[in-house]
Amino acid sequence: xxxxxxxxxxxxxxxxxxxxxxxxxxxxxxxxxxxxxxxxxxxxxxxxxxxxxxxxxxxxxxxxxxxxxxxxxxxxxxxxxxxxxxxxxxxxxxxxxxxxxxxxxxxxxxxxxxxxxxxxxxxxxxxxxxxxxxxxxxxxxxxxxxxxxxxxxxxxxxxxxxxxxxxxxxxxxxxxxxxxxxxxxxxxxxxxxxxxxxxxxxxxxxxxxxxxxxxxxxxxxxxxxxxxxxxxxxxxxxxxxxxxxxxxxxxxxxxxxxxxxxxxxxxxxxxxxxxxxxxxxxxxxxxxxxxxxxxxxxxxxxxxxxxxxxxxxxxxxxxxxxxxxxxxxxxxxxxxxxxxxxxxxxxxxxxxxxxxxxxxxxxxxxxxxxxxxxxxxxxxxxxxxxxxxxxxxxxxxxxxxxxxxxxxxxxxxxxxxxxxxxxxxxxxxxxxxxxxxxxxxxxxxxxxxxxxxxxxxxxxxxxxxxxxxxxxxxxxxxxxxxxxxxxxxxxxxxxxxxxxxxxxxxxxxxxxxxxxxxxxxxxxxxxxxxxxxxxxxxxxxxxxxxxxxxxxx
Length: 553
Description:
This protein is an alpha/beta fold.
């Protein structure tokens, strides 16, 4: 383990994260070193040169902890261990050392809202029985009805169905996600102390930052009697706009910020301080609270991810996001895809209002997606995002232009959403299909054997091998964009141009360059300036539809 006092990080700039490009790795789908079909830490370490050549600043590892994969690794049995199928702590240390040698920071996922039902504490709680100190680490309650046969409240799980599960002795426990993910009781001081230990454990091993899963759900109103919501839909994040801020019984409660102020003291004790970013599905003004300097410092901007491919809507979201970040003293964050959503190379080209779940259930054929058109729009969206001030989070495979694998057969699905909703929601497996590295082989270079989810034959054309060094490829577009971005970004301001055609976004950066994005269906005349980079070919000074260009002045 690395000695905290002598740690030599690749950079001691405490604000490195404010304008960073962070590459998200879903470990089970990135690279497989041992041939068991599941990605692992040694596979990641062997492929870190790809990230260095790409030009990102940091990598974020989704959970690699011991887990039965009831929720893709977010059901954590030991938050200070490594799943044996993915490697060992020595493998983790080797990964961090190699990343730092290459100038890459390392961010890891922290999952504080819940544990796995296989966690030693939850097993102890089951054995200890009602009223025990072990059960107080979780949220156990007696049921309603004459014999306690009804759940304690009408709260619903994010994955569908009741958020309560009954145990053999008759009590019920809360699980806002899968039944295999019992919620922790953050009123219990032992829970708080254990998470402080976890933060220090990984920071001492050289980790540069933390992504905090479901950051807005830790604190619940557990005062008796527990209150019903009155309608199932009020269990979702959309309920936050239907209730006064901070009053939902289990989302975005004001008391949660005390936890993050405590964490910030720990993170600031390191040199340089460790960064953190919140996954908080809350409205913008509330999101700013998590990003305050004395809390986590940054929060994901899901309004941008959810925005339509529409110039007016995007301009409003960008403007509000920058203002929200500025008010918090943070930098803005931008993301187009992640492990929970349909990949943007497919999503952005679907007609407005498309029901994404229905589209997935139809295998991606209703409506059909033009992959070439989707890739063109995804490339334009990428250059627009990378021109914005703040941090950009890139999901593995988007640098290859990967589309969603919407036609996975139902018999191979792994996401618990599929079973828990009674086969009503297909889930998130389509964006988690293992990456293609080569154009041939049993898993296109993902590993020496097969892959835990089947890869379509079309993945060969998207492989790293197929795009490396090929002028105009999506991989080379990312490499060039990130190289230019390092030279161009200096400051966190932009100035919108108003005299633009309908459907066009144009903004100037204070460093003397500008971005022009044509989101309309017709070509428009480009403003004057040296073309630094374009997402598609330009013709005679005209910017085609679904094209973004960077111009020097």
